[in-house]
Amino acid sequence: VQLQASGGGLVQPGGSLRLSCAASGSISSINVRAWYRQAPGKERELVAVIHNSGWTNYRDSVKGRFTISRDNAKNTVYLQMDSLKPEDTAVYYCNFNGGFHDLWGQGTQVTVSR
Known about the structure:
Blueprint lengths: L2 E4 L2 E3 L5 E7 L8 E7 L6 E7 L4 E3 L7 E6 L4 E6 L8 E9 L2 E4 L3 E5 L2
Parallel strand pairs: 2-11
Antiparallel strand pairs: 1-3, 3-8, 4-5, 4-9, 5-6, 7-8, 9-10, 9-11
């Protein structure tokens, strides 16, 4: 199973983007899906996570602006990003985790700039 992330791009401050991460197949043991990001010169950090139960959590700096969701039928997880700020600029990676599986997408660049 492979993950394909898409939806990144260049957006002005205050704008919105919607990231998608589609899995090429389904794995029953996957129970957590998440988005991470890595800015130049910085470590990768967790942005948002969604559990199979529907429980979600966000890093403090994106709370109220980002929303993670999933479509089980499409094996896809989304990250709706609103009110984007320059400090949100990074490569965003999706991650599916569970059982013996720890799957990563290839990353999609998000740049917030005038």
